[in-house]
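Fold this sequence, please.
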Amino acid sequence: MSEHDASQEVLRLQGLRKSYNVGKPTEVEVLHGLDLSLRRRDFAALVGASGSGKSTLLNVIGLLDQPSAGELFLLGEPTSSMDDARRTALRGSAVGFVFQFHHLIQAFTALENVLMPLMVASGKPTPEQTAHARGLLAQVGLAGMEGRKPDQLSGGQQQRVAVARALVTRPALLLADEPTGNLDTRSAAEVFQLFRTFNREFGCAVLLVTHDPRMSEQCDRTITLVDGRIESDQRAG
């Protein structure tokens, strides 16, 4: 990855607001005018108390939910006026998701689970896509386990399948919501190192929501959300 690519802006929020029950007596604003930028080299933690708006922000950034005001640029494209089809296509190609619960399809093999985002986008995977998915499983330490179903894998192994699935589209941005919350210490450290590897090797910007200070302290940048506002945005060192 060249220095030029490393500095490419992946995400920009400008005056981003999110309200629920708009126009009703129960209307409540959860995100209050956020400004934020992420570049390809960024490896950032998003921290804050429960109820601070972290999950809401992640859903908006991931184009799963729309802001009430302001603008969100993804790879330079303004998204607020996009129709649903364009938003879905952009989310599918540019954003990878890893959640606390891996959400693997139990009837599918590890390889089929990794290929799922590509199959949703374009039907039957090509030989090249299948080879790419196999390569990702090898990179996350699961070579030889491509044919196993989720119930034949440990919790840590299942989460690694979920990481490979998130990365199979070669996204510019990886969003991880408490991705190690259900893992033992060793498995958590291994999954974190996978994120590090893909950030460095492929220039995939990482935004990691975590309650674990041991994890946030290892990130290059920590964005602290308090009551729907960015209270601090600090880089390590």
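The longest strand covers residues 9-20. The mean pLDDT is 86.
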